Amino acid sequence: MPSMTLRVLLPFEIFANESDVASITVETAQGAYGLLPRRLDCVAALVPGILSYTSTARGEVFVAVDEGVLVKTGPAVLVSVRRALRGTDLARLRSTVEQEFLALDAQEEEMRTAMARLETGFLRRFATLAQRP
């Protein structure tokens, strides 16, 4: 039976490198997608959620992932995300996604808003200085 290889990449490390993967399920903005070895090549934008895969060595494995991208080319599946956590308790992983990943995204959005305000204030002051004789 054909199988896939799965690599989960974080910004500074390889989180998972699995071979003999029979199926993969990921979450996107359009819903959950399942990948089998003979599926056509594809690219998908991932949202914070649970990635699950079934391998002959480990059985079913659950990984909480932050937003990222999945690329499938032939039997190779590459997932690149900002953060990932492996676990066996699906409910705990789901709460981790909701509490940590989505909360960090909200903090980042607040930081971007504050930076935009600072930049706008700086540009206003600069424009005022430039208009003075």
CATH top level class name: Mainly Beta
Unreliable parts: none
Class derived from helix and strand content: alpha+beta
Q: How do the helices and strands follow one another from N- to C-terminus?
A: EEEEEEEEEH
Globally, the shape reads elongated
Distance between the termini: 79 Å
Tell me the strand percentage band.
over 45%
User: What is the mean pLDDT?
Assistant: 87
* Rg (CA only): 20 Å
Oligomerization state: single chain
Strand and helix layout:
Blueprint: E1 4-10, E2 13-28, E3 31-35, E4 42-46, E5 49-55, E6 59-65, E7 68-73, E8 76-81, E9 84-87, H1 90-131
Parallel strand pairs: 1-8
Antiparallel strand pairs: 1-2, 2-3, 2-5, 4-7, 5-6, 6-9, 7-8
Summarize the structure.
This protein has 133 residues and is of the alpha+beta class. It has one helix at 90-131; strands at 4-10, 13-28, 31-35, 42-46, 49-55, 59-65, 68-73, 76-81, 84-87.
Q: Could you characterize the architecture of this molecule?
A:
By secondary structure, the protein is of the alpha+beta class. The chain has one domain (4-131): F0F1 ATP synthase delta/epsilon subunit, N-terminal (ATP Synthase, domain 1, Sandwich), CATH 2.60.15.10. 32% of the residues lie in helices and 47% in strands. The protein is built from one helix and nine strands. Strands 1, 2, 3, 4, 5, 6, 7, 8 and 9 form a nine-stranded mixed sheet that branches. A hairpin with a 2-residue loop joins strand 1 and strand 2. The longest helix has 42 residues, at 90-131. The chain is elongated.
